[in-house]
Amino acid sequence: MGPSIVLVHGIRTSATMWRAQVDALDAAGIPNRAVDLPGHGTRLGERFTLAGALDVIDEAVDALAGPVLVCGLSLGGYLGLHWAAERGAGRIAGMVAAACGTTPRGAALAGYRGIAAAIGRLPDRGAAINQFMIDRFIPIPGREDVVRGGVALDVMGDGLRAMAGVRPIEAIGRIRVPLLLVNGQFDHFRLEERRYLRAAKARPGMPESWSDLLVVPGASHLVSLTRPDEFSRILLGIAAGFSSAT
C-alpha cells in the first residue's frame, strides 16, 4: 500500500502554498492533506503556539490512512522534525524536511525577531514588504498560491518565539524513519545542511539509505513554489519508491 502525505506550510502563508503538489498528488491518486497551522489560513484568528501547531499535525496524521509521510517546509519543516521526534514514533513512515537547514538559535534568531517586530510596527504591518518579496522571488504561477489562503501578518512574533523551543539536530537524532532533507540551491537557510545530514546518518541502527539530502538547482528558500514541478516529482518519487518497497 502506498503512503498518504501530510503537507505543513511555512510561516505567514497557508495550506494553499501546496496547490501544485496537491494537484500532482491527487492526479497520482495519493491521499494527502495540506494543513493550516494556528494563526494561518483558515485559522487566522487563532494564536500560534508550538503545542497548537503540533496538535494540527497530530490531527492530520490521524485523519489519513497509513503509512503516512510528513512533509514540511521552512517553519513547517522545523515543526515536522520536532513533531516526528516528540510525537511521531510508530505513527509515520517517513519525513521530508525542506528549507530548514539552519538551526534557529542565539543572536541570529534574536536579530530576526527584532526585524520582524520592527516590520510589524509598520502601518500596513509589513504587507507591502511581503508582497514585494513574493513578486521578486516567486514565479507568477505560484504567487496566487502564497496569498490565496490569506497572509498571516501578525504571526511572526509568536512563531519565532516558538522556534526558540525547537532543536532540529537533537530531533533528527531521535527520528526512526527515513528522512529526506530538501533545499533550494539559493536558499539562505541551507547553511547547516551538511550538519543536519551528518546527524541523520549518525542515527544508530538506521540504514544509510534512510538519510539523504537533495538540493534543487535554481530554487530559492520556498523551493516548492520556485520549483514546483521538481518538488512534486520528489514527493511522487518517494511515494513510488515506498510503494515498490512494500
Pairing-aware structural class of the strands and helices?
A: alpha/beta
Here the CATH topology equals Rossmann fold
**Compute the gyration radius: what is it?**
17 Å
Structural domain count: 1
What's the helix count?
A: 11
In short:
The chain is an alpha/beta fold and 246 residues long.
Notes on the structure:
Helices cover 47% and strands 13% of the residues. It has 246 residues and is α/β, with parallel strands linked by helices. The chain is globular, with a radius of gyration of 17 Å. It has helices at residues 19-27, 50-63, 75-86, 106-120, 127-137, 140-147, 156-163, 168-174, 193-201, 223-226, 228-245, and strands at 4-8, 32-35, 68-73, 94-98, 179-184, 211-216. Helix 2 (50-63) crosses helix 3 (75-86) and helix 4 (106-120) runs antiparallel to helix 7 (156-163). The longest helix has 18 residues, at 228-245. Strand 1, helix 1 and strand 2 form a beta-alpha-beta unit. It has a 6-stranded parallel beta sheet, with helices on both faces. It has one domain: Rossmann fold (3-Layer(aba) Sandwich).
List keywords for this structure.
246 residues; alpha/beta; Rossmann fold; six-stranded parallel β-sheet; globular
Tell me the layout of helices and strands.
Layout: E1 4-8, H1 19-27, E2 32-35, H2 50-63, E3 68-73, H3 75-86, E4 94-98, H4 106-120, H5 127-137, H6 140-147, H7 156-163, H8 168-174, E5 179-184, H9 193-201, E6 211-216, H10 223-226, H11 228-245
Parallel strand pairs: 1-2, 1-3, 3-4, 4-5, 5-6
Helix pairs in contact: 1-11, 2-3, 3-8, 4-7, 8-9
